[in-house]
TrEMBL record:
PANTHER family: OUTER-MEMBRANE LIPOPROTEIN CARRIER PROTEIN. It comes from Xylanibacter muris. The keyword Cell membrane does not apply. Pfam families: LolA_2. This is Cell envelope biogenesis protein LolA. Residues 1-20 form the signal peptide. The lineage of its organism: Bacteria, Pseudomonadati, Bacteroidota, Bacteroidia, Bacteroidales. Keywords: Signal. InterPro entries: LolA/LolB/LppX, OM_lipoprot_carrier_LolA-like. The keyword Nucleotide-binding does not apply. It comes from the Bacteria.
Amino acid sequence: MKRIGILVIVLATFIAVANAQNAKSILDRTAEILSNKGGITAKFSISGQQAGTLAFKGRAFHASTPQAVIWFDGTTQWTYMKNNEEVNISKPDRNKQQMMNPYNFIMIYKAGYRYTAKAIGNSYQVHLTSTDARRNIKEMYITVGKKTYIPSQIRILQNKTWTTIDISNFKKANLNASTFKFNSKEYPNAEIIDLR
């Protein structure tokens, strides 16, 4: 009887390790696609309410919604609010950077998270759970295509609230550095507020 119990424990451990390795390989493939040297463009919708376009290349990104435009060059962020033509300049800390760039959502699995994966139709869904209580993102689900490994949805648990980000029109691009910097010539009437 003891041998059967030990066998069950060994099999359960083997299955858990195999599942974690499968989840890691899925995220590794997705991270490889997101690391396209030229960058990525996509459309997004946050919890079905706010929609827009996104371009990113490594840590830099550019996002545009009907309310605002954001540029982030990896260090400095410019946020243009369309309703009052105001540009806020800031240097976001690491936690804020994590919440802004989808590349960071995918890459956080490398430290401080346990993960499992399951197949759902034509997609894989990877579930990440934080192993560090200090993490802002406690849980996350990343859904990627089985054939493409392109993310289609990210669900994040932060401050006891779930946020869903749907991603579409995902394309590799060839973006230059100016994509991620605010150009004051294009917004001559904007009031600049430097918060750095």
